[in-house]
Amino acid sequence: MKILIDTNVIIDVYQNRKDFVDNSAKVLKLSENRKVTGYITASTITDIYFILSRHIKDRQQLKSLVQKLLSSVTLADVMAKDVTDSFDLVIEDFEDALLAQCAKRLKIDYIVTRNTKDFVNSPISAITPDDFLEKFFR
Predict the structure, then answer these.
(1) Which of 27, 34, 38, 112 is least crowded, fewest Cβ atoms below 10 Å from its Cβ?
(2) CATH, domain range 2-131
(3) Residues 81-110: tens digit of each pLDDT
(4) Smallest Cα–Cα separation from 78: which of 91, 92, 94, 90?
């Protein structure tokens, strides 16, 4: 199974967000253990780096965290056509539309996100980490 992991799921883990960290970490662990093929986009990694850099001032520590993440997931390129085709999707937030378009091109099974409402019109179904684990791994 191929999943595209949204930024918020990864940030839940690295910022230890109390209400979300457990199941978000389990999703990442499934990818790390190759039980699923977890993808993040190249554009997502820049967002993750930026968000974490506001809280982690030690650049070597930040680099190590990002490299560990990259060893656990597959990095998906964002193609020029993904960008232009994203404008055709009926998704309000451009970043979400871009994720959905990349997921479509990669033939992803699910987008794993806490913000499923943002992907209502996505060509790829969105599912929360909790629901994903319940549906496929319990």
Answers:
(1) 34
(2) 3.40.50.1010
(3) 999 999 999 999 999 999 999 999 999 999
(4) 94
